[in-house]
Amino acid sequence: MDLGNQQRIKDLCDQYGNEDLIVVLGGAEAEASGLAAETVATGDPTFAGPLAGVPLGLKAYHMFELKDEVDPAVYDEQVGMMEMVLDVDAIKAEVETYRAQ
Amino acid sequence: MSMLEGKKVAILGDRDGIPGPAIEECVKSAGADVVFSTTECFV
Amino acid sequence: MSYPVLKGAAYALIQGNDLALYQGSTAAGERYTNPDSEFLKELPAHWRSFEAAVAYPPNQAYIGNIHPRALREIPRPWYENGLPDAKTEGKYGTIASEDILYGLMKAVDTFDLVLLDETFLAPLKEKIAALPGLSQWKCLEKLDKNPADLAAITEQVEQQHAEPLYFAQQLIGCVKRAHEYDAALTAHVLTENLVAKASASFALQQLLNKCELKAEQVDYIIECSEEACGDMNQRGGGNFAKSIGEICGCINASGSDTRSFCAGPAHALVEAAALVQSGIYENVVVLAGGASAKLGLNSRDHVKKGLPMLEDMLGAFAIHISVDDGVSPLIRTDVVGRHKIGSGASPQAVMQAIVAAPLDAAGLKIADIDMFSAEMQNPEITEPAGAGDVPTANFKMIGALGVMRGEFERSQLPSVVERIGMPGFAPTQGHIPSGVPFLGHCREMMLAGEIHRAMIIGKGSLFLGRLTNLFDGISFVVEANPGKKAAAESLDGLTKTRVGLVVLGSEHPVCELVHGAEQAAAADPRLDVVLIGCGDSGMLHGVEAADADAALKKMDEMLASGELDAAVAMHYAFPLGVSTVGRVVTPAFGRKLYIANTTGTSATERTAALVRNAISGIACAKASGHPQPTVGLLNLDGARQAERILRQLAENGYEIHFAESSRADGGAVMRGNDLLRGVPDVMVTDSLTGNVLIKLFSAYSSGGSYEALGDGYGPGVGEKYGKVINIISRASGAPVISGAIAFAAEAARGGLPKLAAAEFAAAKAAGLDALLDSLAAKPQGTAQETVAAPPEKVVDEEITGIEVFAIEDAVQLLWKNGVYAAAGMGCTGPVVMVAREDHQRALQLLKEGEYL
Hints:
heterotrimer, A: mainly alpha, 56% helix, C: alpha/beta, Peroxisomal Thiolase, Chain A, domain 1, Alpha-Beta Plaits, 3 domains, twelve-stranded mixed beta sheet, six-stranded mixed beta sheet, 29 helices, 28 strands
């Protein structure tokens, strides 16, 4: 996960707290999406950025997981095509694991 | 009611996945408050 | 008005291991935040040698030595499967090492900013001057100016804010800053700009070396990298383009720079096409050099996963756009897609704007585009970094768009992706992978008639510049050039190619044939299709006839009177000596394959017929725009003997290009696999087998009653045959009929009767008649007497290439000469087996006896 973005997420978490703030991901594949979810939950596992060793405890969802939470017409228009392109099941399964922890 | 309703949302989009602005449209439709939106690029 | 053409394309790759470690943004960022990091220490251990970078299959695809689709056959990881005998020099470009780049940077440096250690530079000078075309660079004299030593360089780096240059981790030079505090002229910025200038100049020189263009013919240059040059008062003032043209001696050129992140090159090509089409300039070059900042971009992930640092290549290219030459592929300036400011950022909005909208406006479908080239990043680089397989994602998006538009079923997505796409093969250099790497291959495929249309797509992430959240994308269509004559005809609106279609006699209703005819007419505005046997359709003119026979008679009359240039019929009584060359789409890679022959009798003797079929097939492929078709002989009775005669013709000067079987043992005799893969351009068979093959390839998907694929049984070809009449069957459906009409039009435009006469004349000049006559008196008679076998030996050597009917005679011949031999069946046909010690002598005897 981009180091600048790690700092932004850290600042936002300080401001809003980890109950009210949700991170929504748009990653192209499972591993990278999982890595981002892990970084905002338990800290940067690569120990490269500001979230190294900083467990914010934030919940992260991939956009695919929020399909039933948003307006179906908007989802179809914005995301529908990518359901045919990306490996939806693998991404969902991977990101979900880091919320369960 | 959507679980996103009234929540603050930080968006980490991906140029080759779902870009930030597309996610923004979606979560706004569920009543979320977008506090940060970015799109990462690996290429 | 005519379209501009894609006249030439050239490419260059330059390795930059040390650049990645010191100038690459990932490593530089790490050094800034964490100078002692393990990653920085470990990175050089992941460097590839120059030889490994040259042998890397995607790099060989980039410079044109292999087709990108050949990567499908090479197992991943590609870095473990380097190509043996890979060369630095390719069909469209070259690969150079990092030391060369430093020399080039010094050569193109007008302001004496680059210092190189004299001991490093001295041996380089000769190496650089020896590179093709570079001895013409006047600026090479710079290499002799401002000699520096290590002490001076160290002082510059440590005291004067110079950017260090390393080679094999040794300090060998530096780039000085050009101003004390101007942020646009720091040593780092100047290094990036000099890398871009040097590598782009090198690519332009490749274009001048490999294509017809001369430096002084260039009218305008558009540079489209992602760098900015200027000073603090105009940070992106430009003009890279002229500075690069100056290096290569383009004294008559002006130029300017175009920017749009990774989409820049596609924008620049549309602009170049417009400048040529408007008549403002005749020869425009679009070019870009490499980005040192992007070297090692994802190296953190590559190191973590134990991969080599695959992002060690600077990419560069130069594309020549010029006026219609009647040959080079056209840039369809009327089929240009653009992401509009109001288009939206969702992936489907982007694809809608850049793919669907321009096709809709031109009345085309996704299926009308044979190949797409979007972002051609090498997936081996991006996948470990979490960005997935970018080109495949693009092809899937295009396929998904087709699904959403109702063009395909969702279940067809994988086959659509396979048909329109290719593996990514370009380095992750931002603007470099975006559409343009395919242009060299695209041009060649179109010249060979392998594809008709391709869409080139550039996409860019404008939000990285922090001025807008907008996305960007632009596309254009490249199309095979129909030829000068045809183009002139359609433009004047005078004579179109007129093709008649007999609509009576099919097992399908007449409307099915009319539908096929309308499809053909709609696809080609230079085509006039006349229906014979029914009245006018909504779109086409019809000529009534009482029944099928009357319709055929009418067709003959219209051909004789010149009312028609060609015709398509379900049946026609060709004279002896004329047989048809069909064309199918082979299932493995969607390649078009000419099957020679499919109906009719080219000769009564089997082997002579195969030889004549090969010549007819060559003529037919040439008429359809393959200047040098490859020929393979299907492994049938007589194929070996026909091959022997064809090789003899070739030896006597008849031009023939043999295909090489895709099976491990190679050879021009083709196996079933080669049929499925479409290995040769022309597959030679007897006409009964050819007929069965056409039916199989055309109807395997429909259960047999409906021929849905391919272009039918093809035109009748003969030594002295003057008409173009293409055959379809009573089961041919609309798509095949449409293909057959287009095929007939191609044959007529290509002058098939004349070409066939010329081919046969050339074969005769190489001794065709005598060789065919010798078949009648073949060695069967020589071995009539029975010969006793010599003492039996262990036979462990196989001799292939002898016809099955002559195999026993061949054995007898060897026995007669005291060589023990046995006949057998090898995996590709009959063999004569002999002992190892007799092998050479047996070969000799069989050759003398004309069995081989």
